[in-house]
């Protein structure tokens, strides 16, 4: 049994060395979004911007669909994907809602019910 199989969590993509290698181009692109000029270039021509970083067909399709789970499966690291999501006005709660198949409001309610703040920046 491989290490990956031993530590598998059903429904979860393990971000290990293999996933890091697979997602290198995607994560590098997402990191570039720290610069406003790069965000504008992406918005102006997403496909050309993805090509500039050498994204795979799988990664490009996940970008087009704005599908965080597919982006993670394609090697995306959630910390870099948050930069991608931010371009569209999405935050980590939007990502969490997408990951759980819930609406953002239901996801926030679930956090509050679990004793966590709905908006961690506000502390309550």
Give the full name of the CATH homologous superfamily of the largest domain: Dioxygenase LigAB, LigA subunit
Radius of gyration over C-alpha positions, nearest whole angstrom? 16 Å
What percentage of amino acids are in beta strands?
under 5%
Name of the CATH architecture of the largest domain: Orthogonal Bundle
Range of helix content: 55-70%
- Given as residue ranges, the uncertain stretches (5+ residues, pLDDT < 50) are none
Main β sheet profile: none
- Count every beta strand, where a strand is a DSSP E run of 2 or more residues: 0
Description:
By secondary structure, the protein is mainly α. It folds into 2 domains: 13-89, Dioxygenase LigAB, LigA subunit (Protocatechuate 4,5-dioxygenase, Chain A), CATH 1.10.700; 91-124, no CATH class. It has 10 helices and no strands. It has helices at residues 3-6, 17-22, 24-32, 36-44, 46-52, 57-65, 68-73, 78-87, 92-100, 104-113. Helix 3 (24-32) packs across helix 8 (78-87) and helix 4 (36-44) crosses helix 5 (46-52). The radius of gyration is 16 Å and the shape is globular. The N and C termini lie far apart (44 Å). The model has no long low-confidence stretch (mean pLDDT 87).
């Amino acid at each position: 049994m491989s290490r990956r199989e031993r530590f598998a969590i059903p429904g979860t993509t393990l971000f290990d060395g293999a996933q890091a290698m697979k997602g290198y181009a995607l994560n590098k692109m997402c990191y570039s979004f720290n610069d406003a000029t790069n965000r504008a270039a992406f918005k102006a021509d997403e496909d050309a911007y993805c090509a500039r970083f050498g994204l795979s067909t799988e990664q490009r399709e996940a970008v087009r669909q704005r599908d965080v789970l597919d982006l993670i499966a394609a090697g995306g690291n959630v910390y870099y994907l948050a930069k991608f999501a931010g371009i569209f006005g999405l935050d980590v709660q939007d990502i969490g809602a997408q990951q759980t198949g819930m609406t953002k409001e239901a996801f926030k309610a679930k956090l509050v019910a679990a004793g966590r703040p709905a908006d961690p920046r506000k502390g309550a």
